[in-house]
Amino acid sequence: MDLQEQLRWTQSADAWSRWAEQVADPAIRINMPLLDLAAAAPGARVLDVAAGVGEPSLSQAERLGGNGLIVACDLVPDMLRTLRARAAGRTSAAPVPVAADMTALPFPDRSFDHVLCRFGLMFVPDVPAALREMHRVLRPGGNAALAVWGNRAENSLFDQLDQCLDTVLGPDPASLLPPLFRFADPAPLLPAARQAGFAAAEYRTLRLRTMADGTRPFWRATLDMAFTPRLAGADTMATARLHDHIASHYRALADAQHRVEVRSAVHLLCFQA
Ligand SMILES: C[S@@+](CC[C@H](N)C(=O)[O-])C[C@H]1O[C@@H](n2cnc3c(N)ncnc32)[C@H](O)[C@@H]1O
């Protein structure tokens, strides 16, 4: 188990809990094509690894409409507490939360039809071990569908917020952002998947563009969720200065209708067991 990652995400769990419902709609724009790739049929057994506070497990639960099993696994129990609370407010059958490291899954061989992993693989030090575990728990003919971020320049909000943080708080000693873009070039994951036992591996890139309302702090959820450990070191005055700086940064970028373009790029990978 990687203690640094465990600490990072345990520290971040409150922010993820606070913002979970407000970011659920934009999350769906990534969840839907990811679930299309997995193509779970009614009755399917689905494992979501690095499930966080429920993306994409909760979308998958809605799709299966109670006909199937979803297990949501994450390293951090506090993330799963929020997932459980979110699931309780919905009509679809709740995913079963299991705290576990994705490099040592506590499930028998061939126990799932699909494995999902949205924005999780990049945080695992031993990627081959994670891929081997995904393959081991899948039945032959099943698949794994994964989402990883594309390159930093195409993910404008992360990139710009990081620059604002550098300006106001100074350089980041913990380098929180680079791991997000570890698979900006996803090509090396294809032979890695075959090495782990998958029969076939492919990917495509999803590019999204949103015009955000520049008169509102549309950037706040991303700031709080992605940069929690960095913000924890800032006092109230520094945080206020940071918020002012970000707001004026986006005022300067806004168009005549006060809209700000937010671009993102996500690689969607599918591995056949
Ligand atoms: C960026 S969040 C993604 C959460 C969710 N899938 C989503 O897309 O909103 C990364 C998650 O990976 C989890 N994580 C990191 N390393 C892990 C590991 N080795 N095994 C299982 N989960 C891990 C973290 O606790 C965190 O919840």
Give a short synopsis of this structure.
This protein has helices at 3-19, 24-38, 57-64, 77-88, 127-137, 156-169, 189-195, 220-226, 228-232, 236-253; strands at 45-49, 69-74, 96-99, 112-118, 138-149, 200-213, 259-272. By secondary structure, it is α/β, with parallel strands linked by helices.
Number of DSSP helical runs = 10
Order of helices and strands: HHEHEHEEHEHHEHHHE
* DSSP E strands, number: 7
Percent helix range: 40-55%
Q: What is the C-level CATH assignment of the domain at 3-151 and 179-209 and 264-272?
A: Alpha Beta
> At CATH's second level, what is the architecture of the domain at 3-151 and 179-209 and 264-272?
3-Layer(aba) Sandwich
Report the uncertain regions. none
Largest sheet: 7 strands, mixed
* Order of the strands making up the biggest sheet: 3-2-1-4-5-7-6
Average pLDDT, all residues? 96
Describe this structure in words.
This protein is of the alpha/beta class and 273 residues long. It has a domain at 3-151 and 179-209 and 264-272: Rossmann fold, CATH 3.40.50. The chain contains ten helices and seven strands. The chain has helices at residues 3-19, 24-38, 57-64, 77-88, 127-137, 156-169, 189-195, 220-226, 228-232, 236-253, and strands at residues 45-49, 69-74, 96-99, 112-118, 138-149, 200-213, 259-272. Strands 3-2-1-4-5-7-6 form a seven-stranded mixed sheet, sandwiched between helices. Helix 1 (3-19) packs antiparallel against helix 8 (220-226) and helix 6 packs across helix 10 (236-253). The protein is globular. It starts with a helix and ends with a strand. S-adenosylmethionine binds next to helix 1. Residues 5, 9, 49-52, 55, 74-76, 79, 101-103, 118-120, 123-124 line the site of S-adenosylmethionine.
